[in-house]
Structures are given as C-alpha cells and as structure tokens.
Amino acid sequence: MTINEITQVPFLDLKAQYHQIKDEIGERFEDILADTGFILGKHVAEFEQGFAKLQEAKYCIGVSSGTDALHIALIALGIGHGDAVIVPVNTFIATAEAVSLCGATPLFVDCDEFSNLSVDGLGDILTLRAEGVISHPSSLSRARPWHGCGSGKRKKVGR
Ligand SMILES: Cc1ncc(COP(=O)(O)O)c(C=O)c1O
User: In whole numbers, what is the pLDDT of the chain averaged over residues?
Assistant: First the structure.
C-alpha cells in the first residue's frame, strides 16, 4: 500500500449511507414507480406528515431541492434586493446561491472549532448590516437568527 492509498479518505461517502438503507428505500421507490406518482400525491403527503412529526413541527412542505427550500424560506422572510444575509464560509454553494437568487448579498462568516458558524465572528457584521443568518441552530444558541437588524425592528425568525 502506498502513502497515497492510505491517505485517500473520501470526504463524503454517499454510497456507504445508501447501502445501509438500500432495502428499505428500494421498496418505497418501487411503490412510487408503480404508482407513477412523481409530483405531489400520497407519497409526498406521507413524507410531509412523517417529517413534520420527526421535527416536532406543525407543518412540513416538500419541495424539489435543498436550494429551493432555502430560497423559499428567504422569500417567506421577505429577504430581497438590498438585504444582506450571513452564511457560513464552509457551507455548500447553494446556501449563498439562495441568498443571491433573492437579489440579496451573502456575507460570509468564518466557522468555529466545531465547524459551525462562529458566534464570535458574527459580532461586528451582525450590528453593521445583516438582515438574517443562515446557520445550524446549535451554533446560534447564543445569537438567535432574526430579521430586521438595522431597521430598528427586530423580528425573531428562528428557534
Ligand atoms: C448544506 C447544503 N445546502 C444546500 C444544498 C443544496 O441542495 P440541492 O442540491 O438539493 O439543491 C446542499 C447540497 O448538497 C448542501 O449540502
């Protein structure tokens, strides 16, 4: 074994995850294909109900992608042209892309030792110009995501 072979650890091994749930999801996919029900319908409704329950949320709306989920959430919060939204530097591009799709500007903040958005890094940027924050709630236990900074109104938008 060469040094290169030893150090090649995959960053993300989706196949390993797939093999863990292969049989379970295989049956569901067969049902969906047999029903030819690909848009909305009972399978999506079932997913929405199950996911809402898992999240202990009142509602869940299934959308076509993670990008759409972020984009729709920002639109629902009224984010638009001239706004700035804080995003972690170490996220997937879709996080910043969703902000740009609204016509707003993504502001990147560094991550902490747990790879979450750094609360310390938030300080100055938050009081300067941000309208919102996209981050994992665990990194924001000291600074809740909110909307309306700089306008004098502070509306809490996250948990
Ligand atoms: C953190 C994060 N946000 C958003 C997305 C976007 O999801 P999708 O590719 O379904 O649009 C991804 C995709 O990998 C992601 O890793």
Answer: 80
Q: How far is the CA of 67 from the centre of ligand 1 (A)?
A: 6
Domains and CATH numbers, the chain: 13-54 (no CATH), 66-150 (3.40.640.10)
Q: Which residues contact 133 (CB under 8 A, 6 or more apart)?
A: 85, 86, 117, 122, 126, 140, 143, 145, 146, 158
Q: What is the pLDDT of residues 22-50, one digit of tens each?
A: 999 999 999 999 998 788 899 999 999 99
Ligand 1 centroid from CA 42, angstroms: 25
- Nearest atom in ligand 1 to the alpha carbon of residue 91 is 1
Strands 105-109 and 132-133 turn out to be: unpaired
Highest mean pLDDT among 1-5, 99-103, 119-123: 99-103
- Report the separation in Å between the CA atom of 66 and the middle of ligand 1, taken as the mean of its atom positions: 5
Write out pLDDT tens, residues 93-106: 999 999 999 999 99
The pTM of this model reads 0.71
Do the Cβ atoms of 133 and 85 come closer than 8 Å? yes
Mutate to test the pocket of ligand 1, among 92, 135, 139 (most ligand atoms within 8 A of CB): 92
